[in-house]
């Protein structure tokens, strides 16, 4: 269980945040100098060098979005220009990609961040650039929303790349694509020119995720523990009935893959903020229940320093003894930690705490950040392209680099972990510098 530090404040982390962005600048330049587009999007490091892994191209937006966040945090214009140029050159295929559920990751991290900076008057107003960003975001949200499976009682969800039967918990954070597109006044046009509301699909997907992907300790099955999540929910597409939980990247359908948990924490908190900004409170009780349950589970089922192991049911955790009663050990010989889950989950804790005016969640988020932004997680090694070490991608498939004979991955980084560490650091930096609250959506001043 996280030992929540009550003494931490955002200003107390300023020195670590500045060190993070100093290291970040070197990492971005190193990757940019080394990256070859024909290799595909960088995914995770092996021996300190970013490599690609064919599955889906869901990390490209984090690569270029990192450059934009770096400018946002430091004002270094070379990173803004790199982020703009790379977005123009390489992101169009992600806008029109009909085969994935990752539009919120790829396109809001690039086009969305650029539009936000223009709306905040951080970059110069340019009508052509504005139209370009807005068109990309409008189309991205509509393409994402078209991946739709209807379920019983009028509900539905955006289905994963696995197919129409598959609801991924990850996609709650990718809903930001629908949110931004809707905010820009767009709709998905269907047969007979009938417009489909992106807000309606956002709400229905969020409701389905809250209902089927999150457990509440209400007797759903034998393994129903409040706050745990299932990575995948399987439906019968013939009649819209829910069938069972599943897991692609976790240990089992009945344990909790902690990065999926973190996606839920952050995604639910963000959607609470977004719908409140719209003045739509219809789903507030559902989203709040899911956000509180998942954040509570994370706090209760993480080591004392806030860095989780990759799955709370990982088969060799028992060999670590009271693993939740002491700091995480990324160098242990039995199960890996996942720092990327911490980077994502910390933001969920901070945002939910802000939304609810709940100091416990805020302090828990600060506690996680305090650990994540220092040794042994923040990489200061100039020869290593990763920013946040000890991340895990796909443990069941054995894709992660394990440097020792014990076979446990450690010492490597991933695109989403590095990006979300930058994002949560920027979130805190804006609070320290009393700048506008960081959201994925924005309005023109």
Secondary structure blueprint with pairings:
Elements: H1 14-34, E1 42-46, E2 49-52, H2 60-74, H3 77-90, H4 92-95, H5 103-106, H6 108-119, H7 127-145, E3 148-150, E4 156-158, E5 166-168, H8 171-174, H9 176-183, E6 188-189, E7 195-196, H10 198-213, E8 232-236, E9 241-246, H11 258-278, H12 284-300, H13 339-356, H14 359-372, H15 415-432
Antiparallel strand pairs: 1-2, 3-4, 5-8, 6-7, 8-9
Helix pairs in contact: 1-2, 1-15, 2-3, 2-6, 2-15, 6-7, 7-9, 9-10, 10-12, 11-12, 11-13, 12-13, 13-14, 13-15
Folded structure, characterized:
Helix content is 46%, strand content 7%. With 445 residues, the chain is mainly alpha-helical. The strands form 4 sheets. The protein has a 3-stranded antiparallel beta sheet, with helices on one face. A two-stranded antiparallel ribbon has the order 1-2. A two-stranded antiparallel ribbon has the order 3-4. α7 crosses α9.
Assembly context of the chains: single chain
Strand coverage percent: 5-15%
**Mean pLDDT, as a whole number?**
97
Number of domain units? 1
Order of helices and strands: HEEHHHHHHEEEHHEEHEEHHHHH
Number of helices: 15
- What is the terminal separation in angstroms? 43 Å
Please provide the count of β strands: 9
* Major sheet attributes: 3 strands, antiparallel
Instruction: State the CATH class.
Output: Mainly Alpha
Specify the helix fraction band. 40-55%
Q: How would you sum up the global shape?
A: globular
Which CATH-level-2 architecture?
Answer: Alpha/alpha barrel
Low-confidence segments: none
